[in-house]
Amino acid sequence: MALLFSVYGMATLAWLAATKLGLVASSGSAPPAMWLVGGLLGVAVTLVALVATRHVAMPIGGVMDAIDRVAAGDYEVRVIERGPPPIRAVARRFNTMVSRLQDHDRQRRDLMADLAHELRTPLTVMQGKLEGLLDGVYPPDANQLTQLLEETHVLSRLVEDLRTLALSESGALKLQKESIDVGDLARDVVGAFNGDAAARQVTLAIDAPDDLAPIDVDPVRIREVLANLLSNALRHTPANGSVAVRVAPGSDGSVSVEVRDTGRGMTPEEIARAFDRFYKGSDSRGTGLGLTIARSLVSAHGGDIRASSEAGHGTTISFRLPPTTSS
């Protein structure tokens, strides 16, 4: 309608101008004032439409240019939030999207760098050992071969950890759930670590009720979670310290598991990054994937995991497994 009115107005002004110049004869069928008012209104509508179009087109053009730059791999670009409210909302969401893409790209680069570092360490040791054996620097005895075998175990464990992490984070991890007593499973895992705890002169204890109601979980994956938590706890607990495992039922049928150690504890900054992949404390010698995998496996069960600590007073990692839902 506005477009038709604009065309009418421009045509009217053109006709009036032609009449004044004597190019066409006036029919006298319409009062000149009415024609002039209509023409002026038409021109006004045209000007307003042009201004509005420019007001919208310029911000949209900025967004389109920014999209091209993002497509080329530039995640630093941002657009100015201007124009009508809907256009500003588009610009705001575009900036949020690019910020997330930039963060994901940074995480990908960090992951590749960390992965290269973790793989390089055992490979360097193996290469040095093999070169020493070939050059006669090291004797080809059982001790040297055992060290080489241990490094292959490190590589194998790292590759398997990465595989588990990739499957769980992509949602492709298949859980083989069974109805089990998590307390019994926890006692089995603790029993497997008794030798390691004794060698480190660390007291290892478990508190779990004998009549815990079974829930549906994947026993292999939950065993892996507990093993990761216990391994971390023992590694960070000094001699004469203690590690305690507690299993307790929830009022809603869930089960909570807590692993508490008496190590040096963690700072707030370390707590905030505890579950980040490849993150390791200053005194850690692991791969930095244990807690990340534990979180992924617990999340795959629909549960949650958290860490709490106070520097100098140990660390507690606890996770909750949801109750079995009736099908």
Number of strands: 7
* Euclidean distance between termini CA atoms: 60 Å
Morphology call? globular
Largest sheet: 5 strands, mixed
From N to C, what is the helix and strand string?
HHHHEHHEEHEEHHEE
CATH topology of the largest domain: Heat Shock Protein 90
Structural class assignment: alpha+beta
**Count of helical segments?**
9
Mean pLDDT: 80
Oligomer: single chain
Question: CATH first level of the largest domain: which class?
Answer: Alpha Beta
CATH H-level homologous superfamily name of the largest domain = Histidine kinase-like ATPase, C-terminal domain
Number of domains in the coordinates?
3
Q: State the CATH architecture of the largest domain.
A: 2-Layer Sandwich
Poorly predicted regions: 2-9
Radius of gyration: 35 Å
Helix residue percentage = 55-70%
Q: Strand order, biggest sheet?
A: 2-4-5-7-6
Assess the beta-strand content as a share of residues: 5-15%
